[in-house]
Amino acid sequence: MSETYHVHLDTVDPAPGLGPDQGWVGMTVQFLVDKAKAGSEHFVFGRARFAPGGSEHQWHRHPGAEEFVLLVKGQGTVLDGDNEIPVGVGDVVFHAKGEWHGFRNTSDTEEAEMIWGWAGAASRDEAGYELREHHH
Questions:
Q1: Which of 27, 56, 86, 113 makes the best surface tag, with the fewest CB within 10 Å?
Q2: pTM greater than the 0.85 cutoff
Q3: Are 26 and 56 in contact (CB under 8 A)?
């Protein structure tokens, strides 16, 4: 692409088909920059919003991508490996390629919102996605 890609958060629809059966519980995800939208080659940038009262992205991993998250609203628990880490606004967490991770909104009244990105993959297919079975 020769033109600069530009988009506003409010104009990007949430990704379809991301439901509880795949570990996406009470949350919406926007893919803001990726191969399909912007022509990126090694990078995905997005936003996830988690409703109050128990929404979460259950334990999962991406064999083909590193991931970072920046919490910009609310609070929650980052699932990382076998650890659960309390986080608030301004906290940044990095997950290595292939590491189990996720997020849970711990507020019953406030939405949680994060900005996230993958490095090393330009699409969900390239990143890969595996849901962790029966983790307690």
A1: 86
A2: yes
A3: yes
Residue whose C-alpha is closest to residue 29's, from 21, 39, 38, 19 = 19
The count of other CB atoms within 10 Å of the CB of residue 65 is 25
* Number of folded domains that form the chain: 1
Q: Is residue 18 part of a domain?
A: no
**CB 127, CB 82: distance < 8 Å:** no
Burial (CB count within 10 angstroms: exposed 0-12, middle 13-18, buried 19+), residue 115: middle
DSSP at 108: S
Q: Is residue 44 part of a domain?
A: yes
Total Cβ atoms within 10 A of residue 77 = 17
- For residue 1, is pLDDT > 80? no
Comparing CA positions, the residue from 44, 47, 59, 30 lying closest to residue 120 is 44
Domain that holds residue 65: 24-131
Please state, in angstroms and rounded to a whole number, the distance separating the CA atoms of residues 118 and 61: 12
